[in-house]
Structures are given as structure tokens and as C-alpha cells.
Amino acid sequence: MSQQENNSSRDKRWSLQGMTALVTGGTKGLGYAIVGELAALGATVHTCGRNRDQLHENLREWKAKGFKVTGSVCDLCSNAEREKLVEEVSSLFDGKLDILINNAGGNIHKETLDYTAEDFVALVSTNLGSAFHLSQLAHPLLKASGAGRIVFMSSISSVVSINAQYTIYSAAKGAMNQLTRNLACEWAKDNIRVNAVAPWSIRTPLTEHV
Fold it and tell me: Coiled-coil region(s) at which residues (predicted)?
């Protein structure tokens, strides 16, 4: 079988043609790669990020590749902005959503005793609260698609201790794993599949200090 035939077979097997996806934190790192892969497989993707210039640069790049990607500036730590994001996605995709990738996250690198109460709130909100709320908001759209999928971007640090400066981040990701299990059971009746992936360290801007 030729390489072209192999590629064609792969494309058909993994085709996402006609499907819609929302990827949070898609302007850099792992999220950026996820957006590109989903779009390359035929999905129509909406993403978001806090950096307007970076988002617009990425959108121009994806458009040049022929990808169907739109984007909006959004701070996922804000309830109101999360609600606005899902309203925009609902409008773009006619009230339906096939795939939600809860990818946005981040860390504040400190020793445990140096963390403040504000650090705790910020990290839990960024890594867990935003994903929980977005899943709630997106549920009607995912249900309307007939076969919705949610993927939570967890971390290996959610199951093993890897660094003293990941205490709150790791705890939030551990809670995300349990959230995944709960939603998978609760929303199965709505034909929504819920999974999490827990990658090891990947060379992205988030891990440049490591």
C-alpha cells in the first residue's frame, strides 16, 4: 500500500468531518496542537485565549492552512466570560457541540508553605472551576448533538508526586480526575462520553522553567 493510500485510510478512520469542537486555551502549547489536529481531521473548531494578538496570529495561520477555526478572547477565570463563550459557540454551531476539550490550565511555581490563599483560589479556579463550569454550560449543546464528548486535560501529577512546586495544581488535577468519573456515569444517559488524559511533562511554554 502506498503512503498516499495509507494517509487516505487514516483520514477516513479518524475523520471528524462535519463535527464541531470547542478547545479552551488553544493559542499555545498543547491546546494549539489539539486545535490543529482536530481541524486537520475535518472538524470545525472554536478556541479561546487571553492574548488577543496571539489568537489573531494563530487564526491567520490556521486559515492559511485551510482549517475551519474561529476564536475569541476569553478569561476563563470569569464566570461571565465563560457564559459568553458558550453563548458564542452555541450561535456558531446552531445550538450543538460534538466535542469539548477542557485544556486551559496553569501553575504558580512556589513551595507549599509560600502559597497564599489567593494563589489557591486562582489555581483551583483556573484548573478545575473553569472546566467544571464550562462542562455545565456546554451540556445542553453536547446533548443536542446526540453523541457529545468531553475530554479533560489532566496531568500525571494528579496521580504521582513529581515536584514540590505543583502542590495545588496537582490537587486540582486530582479532583478533575474524579469529576471525570462522576460526569461519565451521570451523563451517560445523555449519550455524552467523558474522559481525561494525564500526560507527562510536554515541552510547552508552561514547562519552560523545568
Answer: none
